[in-house]
Amino acid sequence: MNQLIEDLEDLFDNAPCGYVSTGPGGHIIMANRIFADWLGRARSDIIGRRFQDFLNIAGKMYYETHFAPLMRMQGFFHEVALDLVRADGSKLPVLVNAVERRDEKGALSFVRITIFNASDRRRYERELLEARRCAEKANAELQNLNRTLEERIAEAVEARMKSEAALRQAQKMEAVGQLTGGIAHDFNNMLAVVFSALNLLERRLAKGEDVSHFIAAAKDGAGRAAALTQRLLAFSRQQALAPEPICANQMVAGMSDLLHHTLGEMVRLETVLAEDLWQVLADKNVLENVVLNLAINARDAMPHGGRLVIETANSHLDEAYGAEHDVKPGQYVMVAVTDTGVGMSPEVMAKAFDPFFTTKEPGRGTGLGLSQVFGFVKQSEGHITVNSALGRGTSITIYLPRYSGAPEARNHSEAQMPVCGNGSETVLVVEDDEQVLTLTAQMLRDLGYHVVEARCGEEALGALSAVPAIGLLFTDVVMPDINGLRLAEAALERRPDLKILFTTGYSRDAVVHNRLLDPGVNLLQKPASLEQLAAKVRTLLDG
User: Fold this and answer.
1) First CA to last CA across the chain, in angstroms?
2) CB-based burial of residue 161 (10 Å sphere; 0-12 exposed, 13-18 middle, 19+ buried)?
3) Distance separating alpha carbons of residues 209 and 228, to the nearest angstrom
4) In this model, does residue 420 exceed pLDDT 50?
């Protein structure tokens, strides 16, 4: 047996051709003497390296791009001409054959490579001629591949540019959205002070000197400021929406008089309302404002008069459209507002939804109109498109998801509740803003409640222990140290029967989205009027 092994080793070493075996990882695990001699290297310098390491640059590229892939596909490679690079840098033309061997489980055990010296001129010329033919064929295929690749690269570059433009737009809208959301929160806190002070002043001076016109003017100004914060929140997609089942046809019909009055005699209003229109689940008041906003924009785009068409239809957005425009495919209700006005240039159209961008003269617009529409539509999980051309008018189309549920009746019971306390009920008010705390407490006292004030969560928990008569905790959501949610949880552990009312300058959607509150909790949004506060407190205490 030992003699047989020695004979085989001798045959292996003294064969007229080179033998190399590579393992599953492609590294040489065995090489015979003649292969080492051809390279002018010791076998120890060969073992562990890759076969292609001993080829010239062209051979190495050919090995990695053609030889190795074909080996993986077919398990063998038949006679290819390559150049070995000797240790002294000279080249040796060779012909290479290879075959792989696998174990019983199909796993690759090794690849055996056989190398023949191609110094024989005639054979070498035949191989060279064949190689040229193959090269010409490969070159033709490569040119075709290059043409196809160039086309694909051009398509990919164009698609990427569109994606990058969309991403920049989304990032810009998101950044400004966060900014406006923060502004709205702070502004709402200031408005809470104004509203509270004016309501108290109105009640205190009801039988005294006539200052009602000053109060009305101040309340009107504060109301307009509050409306501005709602527009900011709408753009930032943090507006508190009150969705309900809506038939867009009925809504448009109900707005007819308002639209005619707003548009004036120079604009002809037409409606094209689809039969059997599906319902949508949306905030009716906000949707009406959206349609009115678009109609006013259209009127301003037709200074010499024109035609305005409001159209509704049932629509289906398929998967291809959804993927292209980043909208969920499915059934939608379409509401389109089309005018015959001056239209927009591509540059203006690209900025149409940007906040504070407007083509109107100073004093005629804030640039929040279309961004507010955009925010509402996205917050309602819808889609919006703009089609326009200079001199050919503009069409803005809104798609809102179809609502398949039954119509729901609004609950008006809260407005019918009594608004005053009975003189024996105690409310704990927690607010980190000193002025808001003082005025809120005073309003509740004017409504007939005993009030305990706390400026932070720790004070509130102490008050709960000291005053057992407290029946309602009225707390701000966003506070330092202990936020409103953690305070309420701690309070309910001590007093499970305690009623909880939250308030915040942010919207319900914002605080729920940021996990500061759970959906469905009792929330009074700042700024709140005396009547709103009274109705909410009375509803909870009587519930």
Assistant:
1) 99
2) exposed
3) 32
4) yes
Question: Among 46, 48, 379, which residue's Cα sits nearest to residue 233?
Answer: 379
**DSSP-assigned letters across all residues of 170-189:** HHHHHHHHHHHHHHHHHHHH
Shared domain for 230 and 263, answered yes or no, is no
Dihedral (Cα; 54, 56, 61, 66), 10-degree rounding: -70
Expressed as residue numbers, the domain containing 296 is: 244-403
Q: pLDDT (tens digit, 9 = 90+) per residue, 431-472?
A: 988 888 988 999 899 899 999 999 999 999 999 999 999 999
Give 402 or 145, the one with higher predicted confidence. 402
| Strand-strand pairing, 18-22 and 28-31 | antiparallel
Looking at 346, 371, 403, the residue that finishes a domain is 403
**Phi, psi dihedrals of residue 92, rounded to the nearest 5°:** -125, 115
**Residue pLDDT, tens place only, 272-292:** 999 999 999 888 878 888 888
pLDDT-derived band at 104 (thresholds 50, 70, 90) equals confident
Residues 386 and 435 in one domain: no
User: DSSP of 360-416, one letter per residue?
Assistant: SPTTS--S-HHHHHHHHHHHTT-EEEEEE-TTS-EEEEEEEEEE-S-------HHHH
Distance in angstroms (rounded) separating the CA atoms of residues 360 and 65 = 62
Do 328 and 395 belong to one domain? yes
The two structure tokens encoding residue 56: 């010239």
Q: Which of 182, 213, 235 is the last residue of a domain?
A: 235
Q: Is residue 7 in some structural domain?
A: no
Residue from 103, 52, 108 nearest 75 by CA: 108
Identify the residue whose tokens are 């003017």. Answer: 217
**In-domain check, residue 97:** yes
For residue 418, name the pLDDT band (cuts at 50, 70, 90).
Answer: very low
Query: What does the pLDDT read at residue 506?
Result: 63
Q: Are residues 289 and 188 in the same domain?
A: no
Smallest CA-to-CA distance from 349 within 315, 385, 378 is with: 385
Give the separation between CA 332 and CA 400, rounded to whole angstroms.
5
Identify the CA nearest to 469 among candidates 441, 499, 443.
Answer: 499
Q: Which of 375, 111, 334, 362 is CA-nearest to residue 235?
A: 375
Torsion of Cα atoms, 210 then 213 then 215 then 216, to 10°: 140
Number of domains present in the structure of the chain: 4
User: C-alpha angle 538/542/543, rounded to 5°?
Assistant: 115
- Per-residue pLDDT tens for 226-268? 655 655 555 444 555 667 899 999 999 888 888 888 888 889 9
**Judgement on whether residues 272 and 309 belong to the same structural domain of the protein:** yes
Phi, psi dihedral angles at 165 (to 5 degrees): -65, -40
d(CA 305, CA 8): 102
Same structural domain, 249 and 396: yes
Q: Note whether 260 and 269 are within 8 A (CB).
A: yes
One domain, residues 419 and 272: no
The Cα 271–Cα 62 span in angstroms is 70
Let me know whether 424 and 525 are in one domain: yes
